[in-house]
UniProtKB/TrEMBL annotation:
Organism whose genome encodes this protein: Ornithorhynchus anatinus (Duckbill platypus)
Localization (cell): Endoplasmic reticulum membrane
Site (Essential for auto-cleavage): 273
List of residues binding Ca(2+) 1: 92-93, 98, 128-129
Catalytic activity, as annotated: glycyl-L-cysteinyl-[protein] + cholesterol + H(+) = [protein]-C-terminal glycyl cholesterol ester + N-terminal L-cysteinyl-[protein]
Stretches the record annotates as Disordered: 281-335
Binding positions for Zn(2+) per the UniProt entry: 143, 150, 185
Gene: SHH
Main localisation: endoplasmic reticulum
GO terms for biological process, alphabetical: alpha-beta T cell differentiation; androgen metabolic process; animal organ formation; apoptotic signaling pathway; artery development; axon guidance; Bergmann glial cell differentiation; blood coagulation
Site (Involved in cholesterol transfer): 246
InterPro entries (alphabetical): Hedgehog, Hedgehog_Hint, Hedgehog_Signaling, Hedgehog_signalling_dom, Hint_dom_C, Hint_dom_N, Hint_dom_sf, Intein_N
Subunit description: Multimer.
Protein name: Hedgehog protein
Keyword entries, A-Z: Autocatalytic cleavage, Calcium, Cell membrane, Developmental protein, Endoplasmic reticulum, Golgi apparatus, Hydrolase, Lipoprotein, Membrane, Metal-binding, Palmitate, Protease, Signal, Transferase, Zinc
């Protein structure tokens, strides 16, 4: 038995290595096997541009304001001084306040200082405002929490500030704003919310349909369960539950709440998780509705929009208003979107039961909201790569907005799972790792998911990955 397990592990390693090498060789011009990654061309930010293109104190950026920190408050211990000699602190108050910041802000600032010196030899990063204890900023400013800094270059050359902002984005700040001709504003998420508001999961209270009948909480899934899923053509089927790609028992996370009206269903999932929408949501060719009997009133003049010159990122921009609903039928030709991009008016797929038969039916999204839950977070993986959660069709994948790519990337995992199941029926390949054990799935992010994420960050442009796709912890 031990020899068979060792052989299975060896075959899995050989297969996975071959797939990675072949995929590198098949990329054509550009990055290939054995080649260094080309440096990304950096584009300066335009004046008044901010990245990501959402409000600073929202989930997709630095998060909500959590209260002012004073020297006498319990939270003052959250701040740490930054004595990096490569950074110049203005410290006009002579109190050292500008040097105080959260650990995450310190890490990003130190990374930016290196980038500045590499970009402009002889020039250093300069901090003009850090933690504010004197009330000099607007109400609920993140400066009061040590999570924001205003920066310039040491030579105060304003022609460099657009590129300085871009370098801040690359350094990992959660929100960067070319706020003034005199400085760049940067901020980060709160320490206690970074891990809680990331990942691609469902809450533990979500339910799945079992092949033997009835439903089961997603947190209670175990190897051997077969759950309701759908194939590429929208045909319902039952698929093997393989593993949890992420499992955090009792974790508190912020979920997007997607609600439909007819049929009335409700699904909670994290921002970076993929949800299937009807293909007409992406098409302008769908037949328009019949014209109204009376001419519509003239449209109001368009409101002025801020100047935004950056390339738009997929998780930041809502789609145009969707056309009329698709005809009833399967989910063939569907498209997967990040949950953070789903909007009222999009059409998702839900299960309809009529006369003892089930089918997928498009249902219009009625509302999208945010809700914090402490029931845990779970990302189940099925052999099909899809799953019906709370009767709504969703992908098993997150982070990258390409369901087919993600499903292909997990092909070695599925193959190894099937191989080990054949070699060791009823035993191996049951846990979250491969080779596995018949123990309960362990908590945390699956090692295969972590490996793919690392590969993805090397092969793909950073803008292709959702910023809340993987839990980020400051070091």
């Amino acid at each position: 038995m031990d020899e068979m397990l060792l052989l299975a592990r060896f075959l899995l390693l050989v297969l996975f290595s071959a797939l990675l090498i072949s995929s590198g060789l098949a990329c054509g011009p550009g990055r290939g096997f054995g080649k260094r990654r080309h440096p990304k061309k950096l584009t300066p930010l335009a004046y008044k541009q901010f990245i990501p293109n959402v409000a600073e104190k929202t989930l997709g950026a630095s998060g909500r304001y959590e209260g002012k920190i004073t020297r006498n408050s319990e939270r003052f211990k959250e701040l740490t001084p930054n004595y990096n000699p490569d950074i110049i602190f203005k410290d006009e108050e002579n109190t050292g306040a500008d040097r105080l910041m959260t650990q995450r802000c310190k890490d990003k600032l130190n990374a930016l200082a290196i980038s500045v010196m590499n970009q402009w030899p002889g020039v250093k990063l300069r901090v003009t405002e850090g933690w504010d204890e004197d009330g000099h900023h607007s109400e609920e400013s993140l400066h009061y929490e040590g999570r924001a800094v205003d920066i310039t270059t040491s030579d105060r050359d304003r022609s460099k500030y657009g590129m300085l902002a871009r370098l801040a984005v690359e350094a990992g700040f959660d929100w960067v704003y070319y706020e003034s001709k005199a400085h760049i504003h940067c901020s980060v998420k709160a320490e206690n919310s970074v891990a809680a508001k990331s990942g691609g999961c469902f809450p533990g209270s979500a339910t799945v349909h079992l092949e033997q009948g009835g439903t089961k909480l997603v947190k209670d899934l175990s190897p051997g369960d077969r759950v309701l899923a759908a194939d590429d053509q929208g045909r319902l089927l039952y698929s093997d539950f393989l593993a949890f790609l992420d499992r955090e028992d009792g974790a508190k996370k912020v979920f997007y709440v997607i609600e439909t009206r007819e049929p009335r269903e409700r699904l909670l999932l994290t921002a970076a998780h993929l949800l299937f929408v009807a293909p007409h949501n992406e098409s302008r060719d769908w037949p328009p509705p019949p014209p109204p009997k009376l001419p519509p009133p003239p449209p109001p003049p368009p409101a002025a929009q801020p100047q935004l010159a950056s390339r738009r990122r997929p998780w930041q921009e809502p789609r145009p208003p969707p056309p009329p609903p698709p005809p009833p039928g399967g989910a063939g030709g569907r498209r997967a979107l990040f949950a953070s991009r789903v909007r009222p008016g999009h059409w998702v797929y839900v299960v309809e039961e009529r006369g003892g038969a089930r089918r997928l039916l498009p249902a219009a999204v009625h509302s999208v909201s945010l809700r914090e839950e402490a029931s845990g977070a779970y990302a189940p993986l099925t052999a099909q790569g899809t799953i019906l959660i709370n009767r709504v069709l969703a992908s098993c994948y997150a982070v990258i907005e390409e369901h087919s790519w993600a499903h292909w990337a997990f092909a070695p995992f599925r193959l190894a799972h099937a191989l080990l199941s054949a070699l060791l029926p009823g035993g191996a390949a049951q846990g979250p790792g491969l080779p596995g054990a018949p123990d309960a799935p362990a908590a945390g992010i699956h090692w295969y998911s972590q490996l793919l994420y690392q590969i993805g960050t090397w092969l793909l442009d950073g803008e292709a990955l959702h910023p809340l796709g993987v839990a980020v912890k400051s070091s």
